[in-house]
Amino acid sequence: MLEKLKSLKALMSPLTAFFAGTMLTSAAYSLLSSYLAIRLNSAKVPTSYVGIVLSVYYLGYIFATLSAHKIINRVGHIRAFSSYISLLSALILLHIIWFNPLYWGILRLIEGYCMASAFICLESWLNTRSNNQNRGMVMSLYMVTTYIGAAFGQLMLNVPDNQNVVTLILISVLFSVALIPVSLTALPSPDISKHKQMSIKQLYKIAPVGVIGCIISGVLVGNIYTLGAIYAEAAGLSLYHISLFMFFCIFGGMSAQIPIGRLSDIMDRRFIMMWCGSCLFFIAPWIHMFIDGSIIELAGAALLLGAGSFILYPICVSHVNDKIDDEERVEASGLLIMLQSFGMIIGPIVVSYLMQIFGAISFLISFSVSNGFFVLFAFKHISFKPDVNYINITKTDPMPLNPTHIYPEIAKSDSLLDRAANLFMHKNKNEE
Which of 72, 103, 147, 74 is nearest to 333 (CA)? Predict the structure, then answer.
């Protein structure tokens, strides 16, 4: 157990600043999604319109995947990330000027573009710094920090805000502060001098289960972030219990990341995806029976829903990145985010319409239907197209083993990273 903790610490140490920026960014956009949903719903905007306005955010994701990689490959990951998050911080404050669904929809479109571009920077950077033996764990740690931030972002819904201004200012501040650790990190930015073009068709040919899994993941995650608060309110929960429901959904997703990520590093990731989908297929409809019970029942139901929904995307990303080279990672990250965005757009729009006609239960039924389709698709490809060379070795360099703040001069060059461990050991011997 002690050895595992040491190994986990060695893996996380070089990425502390990276994860801190990710956590703050996630807290901000998670709080924003739920806040806007509640504001629109409290203003008696029809649920179907709320779904459309909020889903436009993910249309911005699609636009980002078509162009953001060009900016990243031209100026580098750190400069691009800083620019996108800075613009996001300004856009949040523009919500204060005018309460209008159409106007907010336009802001959501641009916010989606910036947020997706920032995630392309983060995920392509992270996958460049990992290899096939630890990618599942690295992506799990990334998702854990994401969901910790998102979960605590939901709890900020309880901040007193009689003027409907304080929450938006808080979100803007969180985005601005998120720039600091990423901008100051000594972890080397990926080499942008080489990159390859990639299409969805090529990506599907390489990893069909990963591609379809990203779309299904978008449906699941989009439903939770966009309609989760509305579903909870329709189920009769108070604002306090709504925040708890959202918190435990995201906390459940976070809790499942490390054990499932570690498991996916030692076996075919497609099996893991299929098993998780099967569990949620059976569990989802029963959650409605416990949602308005005690806090323990509420927490248990939300934890299961979140664990099954949020675990799919990082395994899909790891599965795809196992099969590509470093030069393809920026565009591949963009395509994977675009695929997830399709699901995030289609899911909330369709489900919000069904909720308006058939009631709140449609929200949970959508999880069973989506996972049922994915399980059948994955089973078909695993049965008839076995991947005998699934765990392959790419040219990706391993994660550096030392904290970047100790050796900033070494971290400036990827070619010197492998000397860090030897220097660290030599330094300890001299001190002894």
Answer: 72
Indicate if the pLDDT at residue 17 is higher than 80: no
Would you place residue 243 in the very low, low, confident or very high pLDDT band (cuts 50, 70, 90)?
A: confident
Burial class (CB in 10 A: 0-12, 13-18, 19+), 417: buried
- The whole-model pTM stands at 0.68
Query: In this structure, what token pair is assigned to residue 232?
Result: 């909870």
Distances (CA, A) of 272 to 133, 217, 262, 375, 422: 16, 14, 11, 11, 37
Residues 116-144: tens digit of each pLDDT: 888 888 777 776 766 666 677 777 788 78
Residue 206 to residues 67, 200, 201, 268: CA-CA distances in angstroms?
Answer: 23, 10, 9, 15
Cα separation of 338 and 217, whole Å? 12
Helix (H, G, I), strand (E, B) or coil at 324: coil
* Burial class (CB within 10 angstroms; exposed 0-12, middle 13-18, buried 19+) of 296: exposed
Least confidently predicted of 68-77, 206-215, 258-267, 349-358: 68-77
